[in-house]
Amino acid sequence: MSTTASVETRPEVRQTQCFIGGKWIPAASGKMFPTMHPATEEVVAQVAEGDADDVDLAVEVAREALEHGPWATMDARERGELLFRLADLIEQENDELAALETLDNGKPIRDARTGDIPLVVDCLRYYAGFADKIHGQTIPVRGNYFTYTRREPVGVVGQIIPWNFPALMVAWKWGPALAAGCTVVMKPAEQTPLSCLRMARLAQKAGFPDGVINVVPGYGPTAGAAIVRHPGIDKIAFTGEMSTAQLIMREAATTLKRLTFELGGKSPNVVFADADLEQAAHGAHLGLYFNQGQCCCAGSRLFVQEEVHDELIERLAAMNHTRKVGNPFDIETEQGPQIDQAQMDKILHYIDLGLQEGASCVTGGGRVGEQGYFVEPTLFSGVTDEMTIAKEEIFGPVLSVLKFKDEREIVERANATHFGLAAAVWTRDIGKAHRIAAKVRAGTVWVNCYDIFDAAAPFGGFKMSGMGRELGEAGLQAYTETKTVTVALA
Ligand code: ADP
Fold it and tell me: For 68-165, where are the alpha helices, taking DSSP H only?
């Protein structure tokens, strides 16, 4: 682990309370919970631990803002202007917000600074531009009637987000919700509440009316479950684990809430022998190790055609040997710690299972150091479809390489999972690329690239990787209800 002169200074933590109805208030219970820096395991702040009472209050003010506040009658274009202003304020604070993200999540500062926060700004601007372009249709019906549709905000939305891209998940959720005119009760992940709270402060500065955005930090089974249960919430947007989504779906049945889920994956990344191998190796490496492997779309099943298998393994191993793992505040660092002890232990357990089930560990395989939750970039070869590491989501820097012979077998093997979030194919044969793209059951398919995201490009899962889509125009759908109005003309 290296420390050099390029180490950045740490940010100040300024917001730690619940943000409800435009006020910064302690949790009703008075409880606080610690949030820590995963590289050092030190507690960096105590944050208000919201629960059902705080959610009740947040829903009450969000409902009031939706139905009676200035937001209720605000011009759509003005909603867009508020979103643009929020994006500008975030852009001005890019480095500080990035540092807060690194402090709370442990991701390398250079990723947070050049990736996460600029993507936040881009997403908010994309949806700001949509605010005044959400419109219905006029519909020719039989008889002497005039029929048109209105697209109205779905209402008060509960948004529950994970810890892997804390600020970006706020933007993915607030952007479409606010553009559509909804009001929001958000619960950030208990591991990473800080950037969300900072963004709420910036939203307040931007001029969003009180009650439009509310943030209740806290734990899933308490604050999160209270949001899911609350009859005053119309829709839940959730990103996290499949098992949590199953709980939410069961609970939400009582009030028939609208649901969108973005869940996990075991994404196939398929490299054919005719691919540009250097590009493919870099793409496969990025596709798995980026963000410490903590990406729902991680290309964790790397299928390599047998002719180029050994060469690709060599290239990947070489990249792992030189990868800079360490202090995420060092701008040279490429890989920071995992989010917490539980995730690190889970990853190390999967590595053990890989070894026990007969895969060969080419690089890594263990923890780095004894302080902080660092895991070596780990590469397994000789992985087969039945092994646990080829089936279950690891959410860490562990790449499994599987061999394949030809195109006929690969689609079936790629699809042999209950997940369907993303996939990629590397080939110079354009016909083959499109054939695979059409047959693979995944919400996103990358051809000769990986992890290319854009606010305009819909993202979400087939099968058990999710429901509905985020980003793009598709991402607005879940935040509006269509109302049909029919007028007798006679
Ligand atoms: P992860 O493994 O990424 O932490 P989770 O699904 O556990 O995935 O967490 C994602 C988000 O869901 C977090 O904000 C967490 O607090 C919240 N959460 C966890 N359990 C529940 C629950 N029972 N009801 C509502 N939200 C929950």
Answer: 70-73, 76-92, 94-105, 109-111, 117-130
